[in-house]
C-alpha cells in the first residue's frame, strides 16, 4: 500500500486517537530528553520544539506512514558534550542546523540505501531490547522514584546508578501515592485492551491512555484533600515551562549563534550529529516498517531529506536535534494509527497544549505516563517473540539474543553494532554467489519478468532484491524461481512475501513463486 496514494484525511477516526496517545507518550520524553541533554531547566522547551518539528514538519515531508520523529535519548550524551565544547546552546543550534543540511545532502546522494542492510534478527532484537528497557526504566517512575529522566535508554545513568540498581532504589524510596495511581492506571489500560471495550463507540474514539491521565490527575488531587502524604508534587509531575503572556512564550525560542560559523568544532559536532541521527532514523524506519500491519516500505532517501529539513528547522527555532524514534512509532502503531496524519496530529497537539494549557499539563503525575510506556514496552517484548525467534534456528536466534543483551547492557547504537557483527559472522559462514538472474520477455498482452535466485541468497542481497521488486512493471507477470537455491535467508523471504501479499496486488502484478517457502511473521514484528 503506497503512502502517496493514501488519503491522509480518510482515517481520522483512527489517526486522531492514535495521535493523542503518541502525544501523551511524547510529552514527558521531550521534556526528559531536553533536561538530560542540556542540564538546564530554562531549556526544557527545546525538547517541545523538537517534538513539534518532528511531528508537523517531518510528518508532512516524510514518506513513512507510521514513523514518529522527535528528540532522541540516544543523542543525550552527544548533545551534552557538544554544548560544553561549543560554549553555548546557541552555538550548538548552529551545529544542529548544519547537521540537518548534511542529512539533506545525504538524502539527495541516496545514502538512505544503508537502511536496507540491517538484518531482520538484529532489528527484531532492537525492538525487543527497547521494549525490555522501557519496562525496566519506567518501573521506578511507576513507583514514584523520579531521579532519572523519563526516556533514558542507557544502562549506566548520569546519577551513577544503572538500570538494575535503580530498581532497588525505586522499591526503597517508593511513594504509596504513585503506586496507587500506577495500579489503577494499569488496570484501566488492561480493561481498555479487552475486546468488549473496543466494541463501545465512545472508547473507539477516546483512547484508554487519555482516561489514565485524567484519572491520575483526579486521584492526585483527591490525595491532596484527603491524604496529603500521598499527593505527588514537584518533580513527580510533568514540568512544562509556563509563560504568563505571549511574549514570554516566544522567549522560549532561541536562535543560532551565526558568529560561531568560523568555529571548526561546530562542523565536527554537525557531522557527528548527522551520522548518529541518520543511523538511529534508518534503524527506526526499518523497525517501524516491520511493525506496520500493512507492511508498507518507507523510502529511506526521502526520510533522510525530511529529517534534514526537520533538523534545520529545529536548529533555527531553538530545538534539539531530531530522529525518527521507535518508542513513539510503536505507540502510534499499537494505538491503531493508519497514516502519517497521526504523527502530524501529535505534533499539533503538542504545540497547542504547550501554548494554551501548560498549567493543566503540569498536573499530570509521571506515574500515569510511566504505565502507558510500560504497556508499550510489553507489546514490543512479548515472551512469545523469543519462542518464535528460537524456532527460526540459531543463525536468527543468536544475533537476535546478542542484540537484546548488548543493547540492555550498553545503549542502542553500541548494541546494534555488536548485534551486526554477530549477524555478519553467521552470514559469512555461508558460501554465496550472485543473488539472482533477471530476465524479461513479452508474452501476449502481458510482460513477464523472471527472477531466478542463486544457490545462496543472504541478507546482504536484501537491498538489491527489494529494489528489483519495487521496479517490477505494473500489470506484469512476475516469476520468482528459487529451485536452484539451497538457502534463501529469512530477510529475503520476508521481502518476497510482503511484496507478494501487499505491493503486487496494488500494482496489478501476478506473482508466481517456485520453491519459495512461506514464512510466518514473528510476534507481530
Number of discrete domains = 3
| Relative helix content | 55-70%
Q: If strands are numbered along the chain, what order do they take across the biggest sheet?
A: 3-4-6-8
What distance lies between the first and last C-alpha atoms, to the nearest angstrom?
A: 18 Å
Rg (C-alpha, Å): 24 Å
Q: DSSP strand (E) fraction?
A: 5-15%
Organism: Chryseotalea sanaruensis
Pfam family, one: Sulfate_transp
Main location: membrane
Protein name: SulP family inorganic anion transporter
Question: Would you mind describing this structure in some detail?
Answer:
It comes from Chryseotalea sanaruensis. InterPro entries: SLC26A/SulP_dom, SLC26A/SulP_fam. The chain is α/β, with parallel strands linked by helices and 525 residues long. It folds into three domains: 14-144 and 167-179 and 235-368, no CATH class; 381-428, no CATH class; 436-514, Transcription Regulator spoIIAA (2-Layer Sandwich), CATH 3.30.750. It is built from 23 helices and eight strands. It has a four-stranded mixed beta sheet with strand order 3-4-6-8, with helices on one face. Strand 3 (436-443) and strand 4 (446-453) form a beta hairpin. The chain is globular. It starts with 11 loop residues before the first helix and ends in an 11-residue tail after the last strand.
In short:
The chain is of the alpha/beta class and 525 residues long. The chain has helices spanning 12-38, 45-55, 57-61, 76-86, 89-108, 120-142, 163-172, 176-192, 195-198, 201-205, 208-226, 246-251, 264-291, 300-317, 326-334, 341-356, 358-361, 366-380, 383-391, 394-409, 412-428, 462-470, 490-506, and strands at 68-71, 322-325, 436-443, 446-453, 456-457, 477-481, 487-488, 510-514. Helix content is 60%, strand content 7%.
Amino acid at each position: 500500500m503506497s503512502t502517496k496514494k493514501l488519503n491522509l484525511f480518510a482515517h481520522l477516526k483512527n489517526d486522531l486517537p492514535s495521535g493523542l496517545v503518541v502525544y501523551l507518550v511524547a510529552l514527558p520524553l521531550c521534556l526528559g530528553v531536553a533536561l538530560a541533554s542540556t542540564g538546564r531547566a530554562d531549556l526544557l522547551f527545546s525538547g517541545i520544539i523538537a517534538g513539534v518539528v518532528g511531528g508537523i514538519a517531518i510528518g508532512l515531508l516524510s514518506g513513512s506512514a507510521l514513523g514518529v520523529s522527535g528528540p532522541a535519548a540516544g543523542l543525550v550524551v552527544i548533545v551534552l558534550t557538544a554544548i560544553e565544547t561549543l560554549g553555548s546552546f546557541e552555538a550548538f543550534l548552529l551545529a544542529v542546523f548544519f547537521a540537518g543540511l548534511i542529512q539533506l545532502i545525504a538524502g539527495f546522494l541516496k545514502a538512505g540505501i544503508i537502511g536496507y542492510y540491517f538484518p531482520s534478527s538484529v532489528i527484531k532484537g532492537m525492538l525487543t531490547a527497547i521494549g525490555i528497557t522501557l519496562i525496566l526504566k519506567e518501573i521506578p517512575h511507576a513507583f514514584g522514584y523520579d531521579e532519572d529522566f523519563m526516556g533514558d535508554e542507557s544502562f549506566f545513568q548520569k546519577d551513577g546508578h544503572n538500570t538494575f540498581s535503580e530498581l532497588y532504589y525505586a522499591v526503597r524510596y517508593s511513594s504509596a501515592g504513585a503506586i496507587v495511581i500506577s495500579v489503577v492506571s494499569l488496570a484501566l489500560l488492561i480493561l481498555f485492551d479487552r475486546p468488549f471495550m473496543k466494541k463501545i463507540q465512545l472508547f473507539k474514539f477516546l483512547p484508554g491512555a487519555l482516561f489514565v491521565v485524567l484519572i491520575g490527575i483526579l486521584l492526585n488531587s483527591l490525595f491532596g484533600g484527603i491524604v496529603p502524604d500521598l499527593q505527588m508534587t514537584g518533580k513527580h509531575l510533568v514540568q512544562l515551562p509556563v509563560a504568563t503572556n505571549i511574549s514570554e512564550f516566544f522567549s522560549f525560542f532561541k536562535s543560532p549563534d551565526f558568529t560561531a560559523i568560523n568555529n571548526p568544532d561546530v562542523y565536527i559536532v554537525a557531522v557527528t550529529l548527522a551520522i548518529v541521527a541518520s543511523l538511529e532514523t534508518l534503524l527506526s524506519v526499518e523497525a517501524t516498517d516491520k511493525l506496520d500491519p500493512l507492511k508498507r516500505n518507507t523510502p529511506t532517501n526521502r526520510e533522510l531529506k525530511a529529517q534534514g529539513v526537520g533538523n534545520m528547522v529545529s536548529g533555527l527555532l531553538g530545538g534539539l536535534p531530531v530522529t525518527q524514534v521507535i518508542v513513539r512509532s510503536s505507540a502510534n502503531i499499537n494505538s491503531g494509527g493508519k497514516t502519517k496524519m497521526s504523527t502530524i496530529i501529535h505534533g499539533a497537539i503538542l504545540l497547542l497544549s504547550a501554548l494554551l494549557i501548560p498549567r493543566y499539563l503540569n498536573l499530570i503525575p509521571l506515574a500515569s505516563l510511566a504505565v502507558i510506556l510500560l504497556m508499550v514496552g510489553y507489546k514490543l517484548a512479548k515472551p512469545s517473540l523469543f519462542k518464535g525467534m528460537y524456532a527460526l534456528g540459531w543463525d536468527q536466534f543468536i544475533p537476535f539474543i546478542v542484540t537484546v543483551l548488548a543493547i540492555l547492557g550498553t545503549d542502542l547504537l553500541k548494541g546494534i553494532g555488536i548485534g551486526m557483527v554477530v549477524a555478519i559472522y553467521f552470514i559469512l559462514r555461508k558460501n554465496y554467489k550472485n543473488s539472482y538472474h533477471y530476465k524479461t520477455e513479452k508474452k501476449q498482452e502481458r510482460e513477464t519478468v523472471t527472477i531466478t535466485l542463486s544457490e545462496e541468497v543472504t541478507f546482504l542481497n536484501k537491498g538489491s532484491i527489494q529494489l528489483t521488486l519495487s521496479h517490477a512493471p505494473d500489470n506484469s507477470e512476475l516469476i520468482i524461481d528459487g529451485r536452484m537455491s539451497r538457502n534463501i535467508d529469512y530477510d529475503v523471504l520476508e521481502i518476497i512475501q510482503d511484496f507478494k501479499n501487499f505491493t503486487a496486488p496494488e500494482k496489478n502484478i501476478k506473482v508466481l513463486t517456485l520453491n519459495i517457502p512461506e514464512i510466518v511473521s514473528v510476534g507481530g514484528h
